[in-house]
Each structure stands twice: as C-alpha cells, then as structure tokens.
Amino acid sequence: MAKILVIDDEKSIRDALRDILEYEGYQVDEAKDGQEGLDMVLSAPYDVALCDIKMPKLEGLDVLLKAKEEGSVTQFVMVSAFGNVENAVEATKRGAFDFITKPPDLNRLLVTVRNAIEKANDVEVIKTLKKRVYKKNEIVGDSAPILKVKETIDRVAPTEARVLVTGPNGSGKEMVAKQIHEKSSRFKKKLIEVNCAAIPSELIESELFGHEKGAFTSAIKQRIGKFEQADGGTLFLDEIGDMSLSAQAKVLRALQEGKITRVGGEKEISINVRVLAATNKDLKKAIEEGEFREDLFHRLNVIPIHVPALKDRATDIPLLCDKFLQDVSEEYGDTQKSFSKEAMEHMMKLEWTGNVRELRNVVERFVIMCGETIQVDDVKLYAGMGI
After folding, report:
1. DSSP 3-state helix, strand, coil percentages of the chain (rounded to 5)?
2. β partners of residue 303
3. How far is CA 298 from the centre of its chain?
4. How far is Cα 137 from Cα 1, in angstroms, rounded to an integer?
5. Are 223 and 215 a contacting pair, CB within 8 Å?
6. What is the pTM of this model?
7. Is the alpha carbon torsion for 289, 292, 298, 304 positive or negative?
C-alpha cells in the first residue's frame, strides 16, 4: 500500500484529500505545517507528499528543497491556490514531480498521484540495483596495502584528477576504476571501458575516436568512438601499455585539448571526459624502450594507485572468500557455504598467481563441487584445477 503525506495548514483541505485518497486505497498521514511535514518526510518513507506552498513555519518550496538536500526520494506534488507559472517553474527546479492548483480537479489529482507513485517505485528499484552494483564492485579487505588503496580512492574520486592504476593481472584494477567513478560527481553518467589489449592496433583509433563513413574499406557507416560515448562521464583505458604509439599520440592530444577528430574526419569535437587508465606493465621501462610516450605517461599518472598482488595481502583472503561465497550462492540460489578452519588456513598458504580473479573462480568451483562445509581436502583437490 502506497503511503502519502498531506502537508497543508488548512484542516478542511487535509480532510478532503484524506477522504479521497483513502477511498482509493492509499495510506494517508497529515502534517499541519511545513516544519512538521519536513520532519515526517525525513523520519519515515513516503511515496508521495502533497505539499501546499503557502504555509506557516516553513513554506512548501523550502520543505521540498530541504527534503531533497537530505536525500529524500519522496515524490513531491506541490499544491497551491496561486497557480502561476513562476511557482510551477520554481517547484520543478527544486525537484517537484508535479504542480497542481487548488481546488484540485479530482481526476487530475488521482492521475498525478498514480504517476508519482510509479516514479517513486522506479526510484526505489534503481536505488536497489545501484546498491547491488556497488556491493559487487566493493573492494574487500582490511590489510594495510588495501586500506591505502581505499583511502586514495576516497581522496581522489571527488576530484577531476586522472588516475593510473597499476598492478598484476587479476588483482582488481577494474574495481578501483569503478569505485572512483561511482564516488565521483560523474556517477550519473556512463563509465565506458576499453580493453586496449583486446583491440587490434589497426582498429584502436577507430574504437577510441570513431570514424566517418568511407574512412576505410569496411567503414560502411559513421561510428561514434568511446571518447564521445563517455562525454560527461568517465573513460577507463584498461591495459593502456598495449596501445600503439600512433593511438597514444591522439589520446595525448585529446587530454591536452579536450578535443578529438574522428578517423577520416576533419571536424574537431569537444569532449568532457575524465580518463582513468590501468596497466600491468612497467611503463617506465616501456618508455626507456620507446614503446610508450613519456608525455602521455605524465598526463595519465597524476594520481598513481598500485593494487597489490593477493600474496601481498593474504590476510584479506578470508574476507574475500566470504564475499565470493555469498555472491556465488546468491547467483545459484543456493545456501551459503563455509570453510573449515583448516581449509581456510590452507587457502591462505596458496600462491594465487591469478590473484583475486583466480580466487573468485576457485570459490565458485567449491560452491558447485563441495558440501555445506568446504574441507581442507576439497581445497587440495579443487584449488589447483586448470593451472
């Protein structure tokens, strides 16, 4: 049952709206002034608030503004006897779902309430999905090296600084990039990922910058590149050390000037992109060998973050195993399993050359192949498979 809060200083209006809404099957609460209404919105979850504009103690538009500032997802429908354009525009600017005049038309009121409830449900679903995504991308661990990584993420994420993430394969560099994006002011926009190692060198420029129709033999139509797709958001260049020198030169120009040109095109296109990069290579050595541009390295390496190998954070293995057991059990709809003490001790002694990625795959193998409690013999039998 949807919950609706009626905020109005006129008792007759509150009574009339309550009768109408309760007849439609809604749960209705009342607030006699703006301050009481704000307190109620912030203390209990309401789907919709029908809020008068002119009220004592706190006017309706201020209630709306303060509620949104506090993160309330309640959908506000502003109600006023003064149905002027200025009020409607101001209410919309402050985040109101709709604006209706007194006395409200019954059909218009009910349609607006139903639409606002649908919007509230959509917002709640999106919040739940975001929480799941955030949990999935959460960096797990409390070892000194991983705490340093988390601290750096928290410091750099709100800024526009470029970040170069280094570390061995499977250590979680992609997770770091996702965390930076999710904690940044760009989180509402896209995070576009490009694996530079997976794209042939002759196609990398088209992938990054796009191309015009007829730019080359197979260019049968115009293509929008990753830089343009990420406009307003974040571009994550994974395995940047595998990018060709010609592509590196164009990336450098894009970072310096904030402009790109599609392959086969002449028009300069302005872009607003935050670039994060990652590599498992030693870029300083690549610079010495002429395989990577030093000027690009310095452009990308404003804030360096090194993700340690799993062997250098072995104390995090129990926490990681618990998370992976939970994640995999939810995926398979199975009861969450656990490790015996001896099995976990053995897990912490293994090499894990594939790092966190390998650990996750092995835990999934345990969930499929083992009983309710994973024993040390299970670890010895299944942990080394496929190596």
Report:
1. 50, 15, 35
2. 163
3. 27
4. 33
5. no
6. 0.69
7. negative
Bridge partner residues of 278 (DSSP): 165
In the beta sheet, which residues pair with residue 30?
6
Contact assessment for residue 67 and residue 35, using Cβ atoms and an 8 Å cutoff: no
- CA separation, residue 216 to residues 7, 212, 220, 263, 345 (Å): 64, 9, 8, 9, 57
Cβ 359 vs Cβ 339: under 8 Å? no
Which of 1, 4, 28, 22 lies closest to 113 in space, CA to CA?
Answer: 4
CA distance 375 to 177: 35
H or E, element range at 260: strand 259-260
What token pair was written down for 103?
């006395």
Q: Which residue has the tokens 């939810």?
A: 330
**C-beta separation of 306 from 148 below 8 A:** no
Query: pLDDT tens digits, the chain, 387 residues: what are they?
Result: 789 999 999 999 899 999 999 999 999 999 999 999 999 999 988 999 999 988 888 888 899 999 988 888 899 998 887 766 676 777 777 788 888 888 888 888 899 999 988 888 877 666 655 555 556 678 999 999 999 999 999 999 999 999 999 999 999 999 999 999 999 999 889 999 999 999 988 889 999 999 999 888 788 899 999 999 999 999 999 999 999 998 999 999 999 999 999 999 989 999 999 999 999 999 999 999 999 999 999 999 999 999 999 999 999 999 999 999 999 998 888 888 999 999 999 999 999 999 999 999 999 999 999 999 999 999 999 997 644
Write out the two tokens for 5: 């809060």
